[in-house]
Amino acid sequence: MPSSNPGVVPPPPALMRRVTLAAAIGNTVETYDYAVYGFLTVMLSKLFFPVAQPGVALLSAFAVFGVAFVIRPLGSLMFGSIADRAGRKPALVATLVLMAGATVAIGLLPTAASIGIWAPILLVACRLLQGLAAGGEYGTAMTYAAEFTPQRRRGAMTSRVQIGSVVSLLLAAGIVLLLSATLTPAAMASWGWRIPFLLALPLGLVGLYIRARLDESPEFRALEQQAEVTSSPAKESFTKHWRLIVLIFGVAAFQQIGYYVAFTYAQSYIIQLGFTQAQATLATVISIAVAVVLVAIGGPLSDRWGRWPMLFGLSAGTLVFAYPIFVGLSSATSLGMVILMTVSLGVLPALYTSVAPATYVEVLPARVRATVFAVGFALAAALLGGPALYISQTLVQITGDSRAPALLLMFGALVSLVAALFVRRRQPRTLVPDIAVTAGERSHEGV
């Protein structure tokens, strides 16, 4: 479809492919790093909290998973402000370097058997660094990709970037499954668990190479040309746009809870039902593979049907189906039934996470887009996403009801359902009404 603005042409396909890859690679590394920890939580609880009772050790490992989310709001302020003040590119490079470095460090940590209490302390320190980087990564990457894309195709573009996050879950789960299937339990506990974390190094180097050669987004260049770049993004965000921070938080509620319950906690949950780690990981891998397809479908559908109707419908569907799905999963006696229920658990969260990113970008003004996006999303991550594994496990232990995690999913869906009604009242915001590049830039190489 031609651009609606005279004198400009849509960005060339080659440039859009580079933009998509550059944005997706960081999300891939970020989610891979978090997912590896999530999939190895049961094992890490034994290596870093060996003196605790099994249930307490698992809760401790889940708490360390969540601690990375606590610091994400600080990272969102740091890197979101860099993106709005200095440009999207510097923020994208910095977050990737920090995230990959912290993950590799986890793979090199000595365990409690070697250094005692210092092992969990160092693990927490590495998780805090991961959280700091993640606070600015997702929002900046999505902002960067969306600012190259016309509004009528923004859902498709951001969903392609989101595929990187889901594929990284598949990659992490696949690596853990392969190691679990090929190594003895003793070898896995001794050194095998380190391999997935160390693989973040080549992933990070590839991502750094791609991002270091990026061009700046058209919207940020336009802000610079019009002298509209804000000197105090954080101050402006909290004084003038705090309602938008709340809106982003609300939209992100179900994305955060649904994502981590369906694609990370589910694996540990299935193990607790009495299935092996290999069986639990297999079920999760199949669920994530289905989610990749659904994410690819959901974004383009939102371009056609609109963002808020899909956000509303998917949230409402979760309120209806979350509990019955957990009833089926908790009572499953065969691997086939476990796989079916695990796939069902991930359908609505996968579709939702394909629609939400374009929504975040479109409701925000370009001057503070990266900061407001990052802060609102990071607050949802800190308060809802990070604690999701811990809260899910605590609900099971407090209530004695293995279906209790459904209540957390339903809570997130309810918050996002309300937020979708407010999204309905807002028109898409963009500095350049129909993002495009001039004819002279058609051959410009962004990488």
Secondary-structure blueprint:
Blueprint (H helix, E strand, L loop, with lengths): L7 E2 L3 H27 L1 H8 L5 H17 L1 H14 L2 H21 L3 H4 L2 H29 L7 H29 L2 H8 L1 H5 L1 H13 L5 H8 L7 H8 L1 H31 L4 H29 L1 H24 L4 H28 L6 H17 L2 H12 L5 H19 L13 E2 L9
Antiparallel strand pairs: 1-2
- The secondary-structure class comes to mainly alpha
CATH class: Mainly Alpha
Question: What strand line-up does the widest sheet have?
Answer: 1-2
Low-confidence stretches: 1-8, 433-447
Count of discrete alpha- or pi-helical segments spanning 4 or more residues: 20
- SSE series: EHHHHHHHHHHHHHHHHHHHHE
Question: Strand content of the residues, in percent?
Answer: under 5%
**Anisotropy-based shape:** globular
Q: Please provide the count of β strands.
A: 2
CATH topology: Growth Hormone, Chain: A
CATH superfamily: MFS general substrate transporter like domains
CATH architecture, please? Answer: Up-down Bundle
Distance between the termini: 25 Å
**Largest sheet, if any?**
2 strands, antiparallel
Q: What's the pLDDT, averaged over the residues? A: 86
Total tally of structural domains:
1
Radius of gyration from the alpha-carbon trace, in angstroms: 21 Å
Helix content: over 70%
Description:
With 447 residues, the chain is mainly alpha-helical. It has one domain (8-212, 238-429): Up-down Bundle (Growth Hormone, Chain: A), CATH 1.20.1250. It has helices spanning 13-39, 41-48, 54-70, 72-85, 88-108, 112-115, 118-146, 154-182, 185-192, 194-198, 200-212, 218-225, 233-240, 242-272, 277-305, 307-330, 335-362, 369-385, 388-399, 405-423; strands at residues 8-9, 437-438. The protein has a two-stranded antiparallel ribbon with strand order 1-2.
